[in-house]
Amino acid sequence: MEDKASTRDQIMAGARRMFAEKGFRASMRDIAQAAGISTTSLIFWYFPDKEALWSAVIQEASPLEQVQHVFDGLPPGTDPASLVSRLVSVYFDVYGDPDNRRILFQMLSHSSQDSVRDVLRRQLTRVMEQEMADWVRRGQQIQAFRQDVPADFLAQAVLGILFALVTRWHVEGHLPWDQEDVIRHVNRLLNDR
């Protein structure tokens, strides 16, 4: 018998593929088949319903979750200026996968669902009001970042730029800038130099 983690991972992988393709319209049968499991009842061992599985998938694919992973992995005392390259790198890694881009836009097209709004609201509060604005404030305190723009606005601008890049990547299938270009331009925005 497979261990629970690998079965759950298998279900999540199948759900990612099906939700990327069909959005919330994907059936539990579609997901089971994509996951390589013989019955939908096994899915319900791990997730109480399709909405819970959808929430788990969108939470993983959310841009705000990617930012949170970066903050969670930062060693204490990390220089605020070095965070830009970590953020951009994670975005390139995650959204280099077309399925993750499709899930993101499926998620946004279903943002009227309470489950999607709840996930995004929790992530937005945690990331924007706590992590990102504090990071910019620390950068401003040590004069690594520009002082003429409020910290929460600069934080929002960085997230907005990264989201806009994912949008362009999704629509056009490529980006006109590589990872190093993006890092350089975002740093220039933050430093005003």
TrEMBL record:
Residues 5-64 form the HTH tetR-type domain. Keywords: DNA-binding, Transcription, Transcription regulation. Pfam families: TetR_N. One of its GO terms (molecular function) is DNA-binding transcription factor activity. Residues 27-46 bind DNA. The keyword DNA-binding applies. The keyword DNA-binding applies. This is Regulatory protein TetR. It comes from Sulfobacillus acidophilus (strain ATCC 700253 / DSM 10332 / NAL).
